[in-house]
Design brief:
Elements lengths: L3 E6 L11 H14 L1 E5 L17 H18 L5 E3 L2 H16 L1 H11 L12 E3 H9 L1 H6 L9 E4 L21 H8 L3 E2 L14 H4 L1 H17 L4 E4 L2 H9 L1 H8 L7 E3 H8 L17 H7 L1
Helix pairs in contact: 1-12, 2-3, 2-4, 3-4
């Protein structure tokens, strides 16, 4: 059967050696088992999700995003542009929507892109990888690909705020989305009920500028997972994964807690369920080792 083809935008954090490189590693196994082929966009650049707002102005930020979209149109015509990172997805989606809605912005942006020999036509559709999983693959196909059911694992599905807004998954609730829980259940694990921090912000960039506020958010997320019997947290967001995992030791040091909650990507969970070993599934890239998942992956 022919694989479903997508123009793939990796984003900065998923590059080799970057903070979310284990996401990229596990994505390869997951996509192969589900009949998805991600065709990397050549010569892509940072989406500008963070630095693009720092005094750079509107046009430079839109041009940064439009360059990736134009490269996808030129090199991989007819393929949706898929991002694994929610911040990249939101930045790309905003750029496409705004330029398609405002002709003057489209003209100004294409004037800038002309300097590098590109022109954005507005035909490519930016999507998040989870959209592809839910809307194009479906929960039943996710379930059928399982060769190592993750039975006995109790998992808190932490969506975070970026993957859930302002567009979200078709037909889903913004306050209590169910798709991540369904993905967890598709691979045989148990999604803990009533995890009340499912869409809470992890603090994002406040981890640097206002660490006390960010760590208060992170503590609430972790405590809720523990309170509801979870053994690990699963998320679709690179920033959420990093913040909630990395800052547990800092919270422990400051507040006398003893948090040691593994935080993994949904792609790692599914890679293991689809037969990937610990290395193929990116499980060696964690500060807090997901030991129960590693045991299944052996």
């Amino acid at each position: 059967m022919a694989k479903k083809q997508y123009a793939y935008y990796p984003g900065c954090s998923s590059q080799k050696g970057a903070s979310a490189s284990n996401f990229s590693t596990s994505l390869d196994v997951m996509c192969d088992k589900l009949g998805v082929q991600l065709n990397e966009i050549p010569d892509w650049n940072c989406c500008g999700a963070s630095i693009g707002y720092a005094e750079g102005g509107e046009l430079p930020r839109l041009a940064i995003g439009a360059r990736n979209l134009a490269l996808a149109e030129q090199n991989l015509p007819g393929q949706d542009m898929v991002s694994g990172c929610p911040a990249c997805w939101l930045a790309s989606r905003e750029t496409a929507d705004r330029l398609n809605a405002h002709g003057n912005l489209m003209s100004e942006t294409n004037e800038a892109l002309k300097e590098v020999g590109l022109n954005f036509k507005g035909s490519v559709k930016p999507r998040h990888m989870v959209e592809v999983m839910v809307e194009d693959i479906g929960f039943e196909a996710m379930k059928q690909a399982v060769v190592k059911p993750l039975q006995g694992l109790k998992i808190a599905g932490y969506v975070g705020c970026q993957t859930n807004r302002p567009f979200g998954i078709a037909g889903e609730s913004f306050e209590n989305p169910q798709y991540l829980d369904k993905m967890i259940e598709a691979v045989g694990a148990e999604a803990v009920a009533k995890f009340d921090q499912k869409v809470t912000c992890c603090g994002g960039a406040l981890a640097f500028s206002e660490p006390e506020k960010a760590q208060k958010q992170i503590r609430s997320i972790i405590e809720s997972a523990y309170d509801h019997g979870a053994e690990m947290i699963v998320t679709p967001c690179q920033l959420c994964q990093a913040n909630v995992e990395v800052y547990q030791s800092e919270i422990n040091k400051k507040q006398g807690t003893k948090f040691a909650m593994p935080v993994v990507y949904y792609s790692e969970l599914m890679s293991v369920a689809y037969g990937g070993n610990a290395k193929q599934s990116g499980l060696d890239g964690h500060i807090i080792q997901p030991k129960k998942l590693q045991d299944i992956a052996k």
